[in-house]
Amino acid sequence: MYVVKNLMEEVVQKYYEKIIDELDVCKCEKCKADVMALALNRLPPRYCVTEEGKMYVKLKELEIQFEIDIIAALAAAAYIVKNNMRHEERDCKNEM
Ligand SMILES: [Zn+2]
Q1: For residues 49 and 77, which has the higher predicted lDDT (pLDDT)?
Q2: Measured in angstroms, how far is the CA atom of residue 53 from the centroid of ligand 1?
């Protein structure tokens, strides 16, 4: 079965897990989704038709090519989410 997938999503997700502790931003599901969405908006999408098992090599290539951009995008996104006034309105389980 073939799927159309934005590989950038996978890589951003991976880096999110990797650097979330350094980003100093709420880790609830809503804030995570916001950070991911904002970061992905700053990065070029990389759609590809793939079979599940064959994704890994392409992900690795993407990771190497965009590592710096991805980290910068996540940091910028975390900054926005942290300073976003709407944060209070969000249904957010912040453990502050
Ligand atoms: Zn939150």
Answers
A1: 77
A2: 33
- In the reported structure, the alpha carbon of residue 25 is separated from the centroid of ligand 1 by a whole-number distance in angstroms of 8
pLDDT in tens, 6-57: 999 999 999 999 999 999 899 988 899 999 999 999 999 999 887 766 777 7
Measured CA to CA, the distance from residue 26 to residue 60 in angstroms comes to 28
Label residues 33-65 b or e (16+ Cβ within 10 Å = b). ebbbebbbeebeebebebeeeeeeebbeebeee
Nearest to 49 by CA among 12, 5, 1: 5
Q: How far is the CA of 86 from the centre of ligand 1 (A)?
A: 11
